[in-house]
Specification:
Layout (H helix, E strand, L loop, with lengths): L3 H4 L2 H5 L6 H4 L29 H11 L6 E4 L1 H13 L6 E6 L4 H8 L3 E6 L8 H6 L5 E7 L11 H10 L3 E5 L21 E6 L12 E4 L2 H10 L7 H11 L2 H24 L3 E4 L6 E6 L2 H10 L5 E2 L9 E5 L3 H12 L4
Parallel strand pairs: 2-3, 2-4, 4-5, 5-6
Antiparallel strand pairs: 1-7, 6-7, 8-9, 9-11, 10-11
Helix pairs in contact: 4-10, 5-6
The protein binds pyridoxal-5'-phosphate (PLP).
The site of pyridoxal-5'-phosphate has 13 residues, from helix 5.
């Protein structure tokens, strides 16, 4: 890995961050707080939240096996996807490399930040070799994006290729593991000590069932997290979100129960789809959704919409012609989908 100073944008490296009242005095022992121009009435909403969300990070640290200083929390993974552009990529000069097809936000954030986005097409099995990602890089490539399990294909990218990319690339490799809790693969979080150029993303939106609270996580070296903390909005995670996260973290076994139910339903749905005459193929998945090739994805999609059932039409995505992406719901929801499809002749 290049020295961090060469990867960070010069203006960000030099940046003196905003110092909020809660940064300057973060102790808990004081009795009277007259430092932040807050209204003394309307508790508990009147006080600014902890800018570094230390209580949430301490609890999360135990669940994720990563120390609190190596955790960044953001307004959804969206913030954890946008921040690396703002921290590392000089607009109009630097570029990033990503697998294709993948989650759309990496490219949207590249476009917003005026950073060149270089997609590298997956093979027919939706896999990639490290060498092909590295070939797409040049001296101005700051980030390689790998989503695993990948959205919308559902499969995990082979670990040897991810590790080989991390080991050979001089910039940062961001592995988005939004769906890792549904996967039999091990998280790369455990490898953070070995790879200073690795950033791993997780989210509360999927297995944790908290998409509404908007809480995303990035795990990386202390040095990278410090740069994120300098650039993020001072109070980027609001108090209600922090409270709800603590509530969710107080019962992580609930998440395990949900995941087990969803994985059972996933197997059942995949078997049922394979039996449908209008379904050509179901792709292997490590996520809480599966991708399937239909005889006519658009027609099937439109029919389902008429029935009040919404799946994701991915037919216009590269390598996903005639494909639908189906999220695993409750048993009742899944049965409704199956019943509708069994009545549809196309
Ligand atoms: C759903 C999803 C996320 C989660 O995004 P949030 O902003 O945390 O809700 C992140 N990455 C991928 C690949 C996803 O599919």
């Amino acid at each position: 890995m290049k020295p961090l100073e060469q990867l960070v944008r010069p203006n960000i490296w030099r940046l003196a961050p905003y110092s909020s009242a809660r940064n300057e005095y973060s102790g808990r022992t004081a009795r009277v707080f007259l430092d932040a121009n807050e209204n003394p009435y309307n508790a508990p909403f009147n006080r600014y939240p902890d800018p570094l969300q230390l209580e949430v990070k301490q609890r999360l640290s135990r669940v994720k096996g990563v120390s609190p200083e190596q955790i960044f929390l953001g307004n959804g993974s969206d913030e954890a996807i946008d921040l690396p552009y703002r921290c590392f990529c000089e607009p109009g000069k630097d570029n990033v490399v990503a697998i294709e097809p993948t989650y759309g936000m990496y490219k949207v954030c590249a476009d917003i930040n005026n950073v060149e986005y270089r997609p590298v097409l997956l093979d027919q099995n939706y896999q990639i070799e490290a060498a092909r990602l590295l070939e797409a890089c040049d001296a101005n490539t700051k980030i390689i994006w790998i989503c695993s399990p990948n959205n919308p294909t559902g499969n995990s990218i082979r670990r040897e290729e991810i590790v080989s990319t991390i080991e050979q690339f001089q910039g940062l490799v961001i592995v988005d593991e939004a769906y890792i809790d549904f996967s039999s693969q091990k998280s790369l979080r455990a490898e953070l000590g070995k790879y200073p150029n690795l950033i791993v993303l997780n989210t509360f939106s999927k297995a944790w069932g908290c998409a509404a609270i908007r809480l995303g996580m990035a795990f990386a070296s202390k040095e990278i997290i410090n740069i994120y903390n300098k650039v993020k909005y001072p109070y980027n995670v609001n108090q209600l979100t922090q409270q709800q996260a603590l509530e969710a973290l107080s019962d992580p076994y609930e998440v395990d129960r949900w995941v087990r139910m969803l994985l059972q339903e996933r197997s059942r749905m995949i078997e049922a789809f394979k039996m449908l005459p209008i379904c050509e193929k179901v792709y292997p998945t490590d996520a809480n959704f599966f991708l399937c090739k239909m005889n006519n994805a658009q027609q099937t999609y439109d029919y389902l919409v008429d029935q009040g059932i919404i799946v994701r039409n991915r037919t216009r995505v590269q390598l996903c012609g005639n494909c639908l992406r189906v999220t695993i719901g409750t048993k009742t929801e899944n049965n409704e989908l199956l019943a509708a499809l069994r009545c549809f002749r196309g």
